[in-house]
Amino acid sequence: xxxxxxxxxxxxxxxxxxxxxxxxxxxxxxxxxxxxxxxxxxxxxxxxxxxxxxxxxxxxxxxxxxxxxxxxxxxxxxxxxxxxxxxxxxxxxxxxxxxxxxxxxxxxxxxxxxxxxxxxxxxxxxxxxxxxxxxxxxxxxxxxxxxxxxxxxxxxxxxxxxxxxxxxxxxxxxxxxxxxxxxxxxxxxxxxxxxxxxxxxxxxxxxxxxxxxxxxxxxxxxxxxxxxxxxxxxxxxxxxxxxxxxxxxxxxxxxxxxxxxxxxxxxxxxxxxxxxxxxxxxxxxxxxxxxxxxxxxxxxxxxxxxxxxxxxxxxxxxxxxxxxxxxxxxxxxxxxxxxxxxxxxxxxxxxxxxxxxxxxxxxxxxxxxx
Length: 370
Known about the structure:
- The chain is built from 15 helices and 16 strands.
- 48% of the residues are buried.
- The longest helix is centred in the C-terminal third of the chain and has 28 residues, at 325-352.
- The protein has helices at 45-50, 60-65, 69-74, 78-82, 94-98, 126-136, 154-175, 193-205, 222-232, 250-258, 268-274, 306-310, 313-321, 325-352, 355-366, and strands spanning 2-8, 15-21, 24-28, 30-32, 55-59, 87-91, 104-106, 111-114, 121-124, 140-142, 182-187, 210-213, 242-244, 263-265, 277-280, 283-286.
- The protein is an alpha/beta fold.
C-alpha cells in the first residue's frame, strides 16, 4: 500500500489523498460500501463499479463461520470468490465477536464465543484473526481489538486498551510483514481522552501502515464522538491513512473529514434502503409511505443514479410494499451512489478550498441543524 497526501485545507484538518493497493488506486476521503458476507446486499460488482465504488469492506467473523476462510483461499481469495476487481478491506471480527454479549468470553489468549448461526463454540485471537484475513486475501486487514461498549467504566476501558495493544503486537508478529496485505492498528479508549491518547501513542509506536479509530458511533452522543475525534486524530501520523470505523451518516462524513479522517464505512445506506428510506438532497425520504403512492417524480430530482434516471417514487413504493426485490435494489443503488457522490464533492471541495462552504450548503439543504 502507498498513501500520499495531495492537498490540505487551510481552515480545517481535511486532506485530499491517494491510496494505492494491489487492486487499484483511489482518492481519499472515501466511503467504503459494506459487503459483510462477500456481497454488498442486492448489488452486483458491476453495479458497484458503475456507481464509483473503489473499495469495499467484508467481515472476517461472518466469512470465517460461513463459508469458511479455507474455502475462500481455495477459490483464489476473496477477489476471485466474489468477482470484485477493486480493493477490499476486511475488519478483524472483533466488533462482531464482542457484540455477542453473553455468548462470548474474553481472555488474554483471545475470545471464545458461540456462533450466532448454530450455537457452535469457536475461538478467535489475534493470530487466528490474521490467519483468517490472510486466507481471505484482502488488500487492507485490521488488527484484532476489543470494541468497548458504551458506557463503560474507566477501569474496564483501561484494561481493555492495554489488552488491545498487546493483541496488536501479536497481530504484527503473526502478519510477519506480508507484502501483499497492509495491516492497520485500531485505536480504542472509549470516551476517555487520556485513554484515547494512551491507545493512540502505544499503537503509533508500533508503526502500523495505517490507523483506524474504533469504538465510536456505538451509542454515544454525536457531540462526544466529535470530541473524541478532535482529541485522537492529531495524535496519528500525518503520512498514514486514518479510518473511522462504522460511520456513514452524511453529517458524520463531513465532520470526520473536517477532522482529518480519510476512510469511512457503514451499513447505514444499505440498511435503511431495505426499509424503504433513501437519502436525498433535501433530507431522508421514506418512499414506502402512502404519501408517495401517486408521486411520479424520481427519488431525488438532483440525482443521476440508475434508479433516479429510470424510475419514479410511486413505482419504487409499489415494489417495496409488494416485497419485490427490485424495490430494495433500487433504493440501495441510490443510497450508495448518494454517499459515494457526496465524497467526490467533498474531494473537489478540499482541492478547491471551499469545504466549509459545501458543508454549510449541504447541511441547510439536508435539514441538519447544529
